[in-house]
């Protein structure tokens, strides 16, 4: 939005021709001035959609990652960096001593907000221990967004008795993220057992013919169980964000 349009909006409010709510919605679309010479940060994202900009760390230099994360944290009081590196964490940690490094999902986060009570209802179900790094990215994302998350691990289709023993927990969930590699069958099984929406999260776990998670992705997209949607391979962040949106954590 340019300055002339901003003035126009303010004049419309002053003349009673636009409500404060309408003006607020339009003004949040203002593109911020660049904070850094290599990145333009979206500091109004939290006001628009409920959570600040999340940093995708892969392919960024550690220095750039740390600088971007520090600016977001300074403005928002919370930051999440996915698919990052310990070197980036060390640089960020020098500026933000309370920062945390999560080894499994290779994520960086920090949170200084006074958080209200967490919203229950999110379950994350991991088929195998090898799927845990991606599952934990989903858990971390949903937790930072205000959800209470129940992580259920190692209940893949090779031993369905392990899943049936957790049926009560699954039945209490308002949304279930199901994380699996190999043949990707677990989301279909869970989808046939619960009334909650199921978010299928394929991982790149598996032997050669699994094609780095493509086999699991295609199997999940062809699920015969109703209520199953699918995110991209190893996208724990996307699954956690969607789950938080379903239970309403981003609306607060």
Per CATH, the class of the largest domain reads Alpha Beta
The assigned CATH architecture of the largest domain is 3-Layer(aba) Sandwich
Which percent range fits the helix content?
A: 25-40%
Q: Major beta sheet, specifics?
A: 5 strands, parallel
Summed over residues and divided by their number, the pLDDT gives a mean of 87
Rounded to an integer in angstroms, the radius of gyration calculated over CA atoms is: 20 Å
Total count of domains: 2
- Report strand order across the widest sheet: 6-5-7-8-9
Taking the alpha carbons of the first and last residues, their distance comes to: 26 Å
Pfam family, one: AIRC
Domain PurE: 120-252
Protein name: Nickel pincer cofactor biosynthesis protein LarB
GO molecular function, one term: hydrolase activity
Brief rundown of the structure:
The protein folds into 2 domains: 34-114, no CATH class; 119-251, Rossmann fold, CATH 3.40.50.
